[in-house]
Design goal:
Length: 82
C-alpha cells in the first residue's frame, strides 16, 4: 500500500476496504526526528448496521481519543505529520 499523497486518499481506501493498517507519524520539521507514532489496525468486514449503531461506535472512538489527550506530551517544536 503506498503512502498517502493526501489525507483525502485515506477515506477512499477505507471505504474500499483496501487498508489493513494505518500509521500516523508526527516528526520534527527541523531534523525529521519521529516525535510520535500511532499504528491503527483496520478490521474490514461488511455487515449491516443501523446509523444509530454506527454513530455510537464513532462516539466511542472519539471518547478514546479525547481520553488520551490528558497524557500526550506537549510538542515544543514545529511538526509535520505523514
Amino acid at each position: 500500500m503506498p503512502v498517502a499523497d493526501s489525507v483525502t486518499s485515506v477515506p477512499y481506501w477505507l471505504y474500499k476496504c483496501q487498508v489493513q493498517k494505518l500509521v500516523v507519524v508526527i516528526s520534527s520539521i527541523d531534523n525529521s526526528e519521529i516525535l510520535e507514532r500511532w499504528q491503527f489496525d483496520i478490521e474490514s468486514f461488511v455487515r449491516d448496521k443501523s446509523p444509530k449503531v454506527i454513530q455510537e461506535e464513532i462516539r466511542s472512538v472519539i471518547r478514546q481519543i479525547t481520553a488520551t489527550v490528558t497524557f500526550l506530551p506537549l510538542l515544543e517544536t514545529a511538526c509535520k505529520y505523514v
